[in-house]
Amino acid sequence: MLYFLLKTLFRIALRVFFRRFTVNNRHLLFSEGPLIVVSNHPNTLMDPIVTASLMKQNIYFLAKSSFFKPGIQGWLFHRLFMIPVYRREDVGDGGTAQNDATFSKCYEFLGKGGTLMVFPEGNSFMQRRLRPLKTGTARIGLGAESQHGFNLGLRIIPVGVNYSDPSRFRSDVFVNVGEPIHVKDFQAAYADDPFKASHALTDEIKERLEALVIHTETDEEDALARQVEAVYQDKLVKELDLAPSEPEERFLITKGILQSIKYFEARQPERIHSLRSELQDYLQHLESVGLVPDAFKRIPNRREVAWGTVQTILYLFFGFPFYLFGVVHNYLPYLLPAKIARMLTKDIEFYAPIMMTIGMFTFPIFYALIGWAVHAWLGLSGWALVAYLVALPVTGFFVLHYWHRIQIARSNWIFFSLFSKRSTVLHSLLEQRTRLMTALEQARQEFLASFPENTAETKSA
After folding, report:
1. Contact of 53 with 10, CB cutoff 8 Å
2. Of 58, 77, 231, 389, whose CB neighbour count within 10 A is largest?
């Protein structure tokens, strides 16, 4: 009952926390057990919440034993279908016997057609990177199948969870579900050598997961990829005639950017070094005048800036009462989750799940208290009270939109200022951007030409 209640609440909370929640191949999660769902692990407790919310059946989770502290936390984790795993780095060699019991419980659960969720990286770091996988998932899968003569029909479903900004409210998440791995396919390998079979299955899981996530080898590579995305991705989206909000296509574009970075890093490292320096100079130049790369998606002319400024002033003027109403009624429940999250932990990976979980309670509690107060003190009741309560979350979202409009107005005003007062700065930025776009486009064409099939298609066209 507790699991069902929290799952329902989290489904609602996820749609509020994330601006855009997109799932690719969701139908693959609707399979009946026995299943093992494996996922990357960049965002601690948010990752199981995101994936489990998409599945109808109850799911058991493998979680590190340090979460199962005595008292209410341990009781809660057990009630939420979590099974402790005793990692060597947590408990030393003494955890082997305890893990044998954990594995036996998993075998029994999977044998009854259950669904198990595992994060084979074993720990969580907020990076766009798949870290080395532990073999536990493969050993559980092969062990469960072995107990049933490899007739269990166990499948491993890989899931890649990709966040645009893991710790930020109203960011995006793209859940990329892959085709299942049939554990029975490793029966012969297991009969020859169980140890080698578990490593072979782990390698297969790793390969599948890497295809489903944005995987960067180093922080420097990730930083460069993000810079290229910021400057060049929108041009590719427009050139390929994609909708601006197609996360799957943007995901593939980012994968292509990373592939091309690796290509030139191996063949022309000096070119990558030069590109990195130019991108940093350009982005720092933008920041120094208060602009972001998105500001150059479409450069407005003076008339558009002037008319847009008039529209924004009218919007901000007439919308201010609603903005003020929304801020007054939503500021505290919005602020508290972030404050509490930072008080509870210094690990940024825990901020988002803590904020979302606390927000699930702060907003309803505050809304209930406000409703009681206006009923008791102002005599509001009936449909008037209902309308008042409905206005609370609506104006809360309006506050976010209002603030976004202010940022757009600020960007347009900077453009207006550059046009009228410091045109040399704007021209310098445009020249920098033109050089960068030319260099990126040339690199793209060279990268595409390196594939024989692309060259053949170009010639035939």
Report:
1. yes
2. 231
Same domain, 110 and 185: yes
For 390, residues 6+ apart whose C-beta sits below 8 A from its C-beta are none
Cα 100 from Cα 98, distance rounded (Å): 5
Q: Which two tokens stand for residue 248?
A: 């799957």
Please list, residue by residue across 227-253, b when 16 or more beta carbons sit within 10 angstroms of its beta carbon and e when fewer do. bbbbbbbbebbeeeeeeeeebeebbeb
CA distances from 199 to 159, 189, 371 (A): 19, 10, 58
Q: Looking at the predicted structure, is the pLDDT value of residue 454 above 50?
A: yes
Render the burial of 392-405: b for 16+ CB within 10 Å, e for the rest.
Answer: bbebbebbeebeeb
CATH number, domain of 100, equals: 3.40.1130.10
CA distance 97 to 78: 20
191 and 224 co-located in one domain? no
Looking at per-residue pLDDT, the higher value among 99 and 150 belongs to: 150
Q: Cα(53)–Cα(47) distance, rounded to whole angstroms?
A: 10
Is residue 92 left, alpha or beta, with left meaning phi > 0 and alpha meaning psi from -120 to 50?
left
How high is the pLDDT of residue 78? Answer: 66
Residue 314: both structure tokens together: 């009218």
Assign 421 a pLDDT band (cuts: 50, 70, 90): low
pLDDT in tens, 297-307: 666 666 766 77
Question: Are 350 and 385 members of one domain?
Answer: yes
Q: Is the pLDDT of residue 370 over 80?
A: yes
Residues 408, 381 share a domain: yes
Give me the helices (H) in 55-121, please.
72-79, 88-91, 96-111
Examine residue 68 and state whether it is found in any structural domain, yes or no.
yes
Nearest to 282 by CA among 122, 435, 61: 435
Domain containing 251: what range?
219-288
Q: Residues 181, 156: contact at Cβ < 8 Å?
A: yes
Average pLDDT over residues 159-186: 96
Provide DSSP, 43-73: STTHHHHHHHTT-SS-EEEEEEGGG--TTHH
Which of 255, 288, 321 finishes a domain?
288
**Cβ atoms within 10 Å of 167's Cβ, excluding its own:** 18
Structural domain total, the chain:
3
Domain boundary among 266, 288, 310: 288
Distance of CA 438 to the CA centre of its chain: 31
Locate 428 and state its tokens. 């310098």
